[in-house]
């Protein structure tokens, strides 16, 4: 993944984290950890909070699943899913071409977990049930 795509994906995470009007320290730290794993500098990541990159298209199913999972995690990292964040996540999912039923199932299932984070294997299984 090139640097522009990495910044675009982080910008999407920032958008979801900020959908409730604030980015708390757990969201900020999570975004920085993801960015660091991508090889971006702290300065590159901080720049995205004020100057986000536009979303980039995701072509493979695995890219969409992985990105949606990261968006779901950043939404829940502070243990509170505000309605505005849920709406933003749903809209992102639809924009990425994820079926509405899959999104709704994920949003319901996340509430079955104390930290609201669906294990990646279960998330993949949900996607497979809607796409096979």
From TrEMBL:
Top-level division of the source organism's lineage: Bacteria
Name the record gives this protein: TerB family tellurite resistance protein
Originating organism: Halomarinibacterium sedimenti
């Amino acid at each position: 993944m090139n640097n522009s795509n990495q910044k675009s994906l982080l910008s999407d995470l920032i958008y979801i984290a900020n959908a409730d009007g604030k980015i708390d320290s757990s969201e900020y730290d999570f975004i920085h950890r993801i960015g660091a794993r991508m090889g971006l500098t702290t300065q590159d990541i901080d720049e995205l909070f004020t100057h986000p990159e536009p979303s980039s298209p995701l072509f493979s199913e695995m890219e969409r699943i992985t990105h949606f999972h990261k968006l779901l995690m950043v939404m829940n990292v502070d243990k509170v899913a505000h309605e505005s964040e849920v709406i933003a996540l749903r809209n992102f999912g639809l924009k990425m071409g994820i079926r509405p039923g899959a999104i709704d199932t994920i949003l319901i299932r996340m509430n079955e977990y104390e930290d609201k984070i669906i294990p990646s294997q279960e998330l993949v299984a949900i996607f497979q049930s809607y796409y096979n």
